[in-house]
Design a protein that fits this description.
The chain is an alpha+beta fold. The protein is built from 3 helices and 10 strands. The relative contact order is 0.18.
């Protein structure tokens, strides 16, 4: 997320992490806004908002971690980004808001929350015994 935000500012264009739900898990890749209206699902499908890198799954980068929810998670959807599965970063350093849930190899549940106005991210861990989210 930090790299996509930095690249969006450096390139002067909107970039977005586009999440794809596949049989092998949730994959993502970065797409570039090709027509200056933001990265949109229809433009991704038509090729107007083209990918700038290969699709990857989180566990390929970090073995044991995956975008997903654990049985004790209070969320049933691992991607909570509003209307679509796209997390955008603008040339001015802002982002769309939302939460991505990460499951750890040890059964822990994590959440990465993005605040749109500043693109600030927070990482939180779910404590099932207290049903609370805490900073690590």
């Amino acid at each position: 997320m930090a790299l996509a935000r930095t690249q969006a500012v450096a390139r002067g264009t909107t970039l977005a992490l586009v999440f794809d739900r596949t049989a092998r898990g949730i994959a993502f890749r970065v797409h570039r806004d090709g027509n200056r209206n933001g990265v949109r699902t229809t433009d991704v499908r038509s090729g107007v908002d083209a990918p700038i890198d290969d699709r990857v799954r989180l566990y390929e980068l970090f073995p044991g971690a995956a975008i997903g929810v654990t049985p004790s998670s209070p969320s049933s959807d691992p991607i909570r980004l509003g209307g679509g599965d796209i997390l955008s970063f603008t040339p001015t350093g802002t982002a769309s808001s939302g939460t991505i849930y990460i499951s750890g190899r040890d059964g822990t549940q994590w959440a990465v929350r993005v605040l749109g106005a500043t693109a600030r991210t927070r990482v939180l861990r779910h404590i099932p015994e207290r049903d609370a989210w805490v900073e690590p």
